[in-house]
């Protein structure tokens, strides 16, 4: 909270009249062992009077509540490729210190710790809002290997909409149109596509009793008796909502025998008559089947004997889908079909009403594609265009925010690119993505920074990789990288997620809070300032110079003939330093002593840090001419804490509200201009 940044002095107005110091609520600062007796939410330590707060409480007097923690959505890396450390409100909300409740970024994040990405518009009540982890576990095994997504940082944080049947889109706002087979492809004269077939799957059942179930696209039949007939299996299977049977028989069931199962193993084939394309495998559960032969066990196997090779495209590739209604607008010469090129009720434009002699479009393929000609008269659209007549634009693709993993613990990578990154809606008339709230970029593949404007104009909006480059420890750069290895599943977010790097004096996930002055606790004793020892040796040439660097800030050039005052002025000109003393004798500490800081016989001088206090990092140097060395002479042991631990910060103003008996200091426990509560006020009295 700004602890490594300079807080410029704020003047505390002291009202003095006729030599009388006016102080409200006059009390001796030592009257209470600890501020407000720690409000009964902490333990008071003697003799320093510092509160050690109980769990859930914070503040110098333990009056403030801590909010729940969660992995940060965006933060600065702590080591190479290591980020998303636990932070209050997951660094996407502000903590209400009076209640201990996070106020999450509006409509974008939710949960006690703001640890969950909100689903856009709650999926409009026509979808389920699921985590990446749970969504991965719910994959239909018939679609292929079910990969886990449990160990990556966002497994239980990134949520998305899984839409009900007939709906799609990142917020489930779009309606699916009837899909079907292109009526002009797949014939013996189609040299481009070849002859096309329905999907056929063969099931072998070995059992003498019990029941089994069949599942297709995640939906499971009721229990089917082992001795069911072909018609009975058909009836059970057509009860599934995941097969297309609105107007026509969904499947054909062909038995080799009279019953589904037998001791020797019966085979039966299911051919899909109204669901086209390469379909997922049927999944069988044989756990309730029985076998009368003790040496054998009941079992079922399923295999595809004929991959479905027909198209399964919106409006059968012979019309345009209106995604607001889910109704096909068929191209001239096409109408709804039965799935086999005849007139029917599917609503899919799969019926050619007359002989076809041209590709669709007022001009062939709207001038945005190539016509295949006879016999298919299908458009091959140019890059950037789509639709049966190539009249629609495609939108930019980006790494998907919410999709099934492509391997164990792998998602959001370049292998899973999606239009508008699955976080936006494509405007087919312009080819531009309309991103969901909180996302930006041409492909909606970047999470926006909080604030309006970004970071409330008090910070820089940076990607996770850029935040890593900005990471510091005690003010010194860590030189870290995040996501430098391409397609690393652990750092998938290196360019996709952004966060705020707040300006000096501001903090919070959106840089909306103001930092208060820091300082040393005036009640803690036997502590020391940090002192650096510098030696400088030069020849007789007085043209040499050097610079000093502290917390990534570098002084102006300092001449080898400079005095202690010159070095002091150069250091205090840095934003990271308010007060230092520079002297030649570590015992006398006389900062008025004369002499130059460099000489041919080697000069030693000392820099004592008066503000900031605490254990500061060692300064570094650059020199042109002289030989310089710097080492720590004395480690800083003082505190450098908010309001010196003797007041509470008002984060809306950046001003300390000091506890009774404390006021502005000079950073060293005496009265001064730093409004940081670091000075013990004298008992009020009259001269």
Automatic annotation (TrEMBL):
SMART domains: EGF (SM00181)
First and last residue of the signal peptide: 1-31
TM region positions: none
Pfam families from the UniProt entry: EGF_2, EGF_Teneurin
Entry keywords, A to Z: Disulfide bond, EGF-like domain, Signal
Domain EGF-like residue range list: 30-63, 355-391
Disulfide bridge map: 34-44, 53-62, 381-390
PANTHER family: EGF-LIKE DOMAIN-CONTAINING PROTEIN-RELATED-RELATED (PTHR24032)
Name of the protein in question: EGF-like domain-containing protein
Highest classification ranks of the organism: Eukaryota, Sar, Stramenopiles, Ochrophyta, Dictyochophyceae
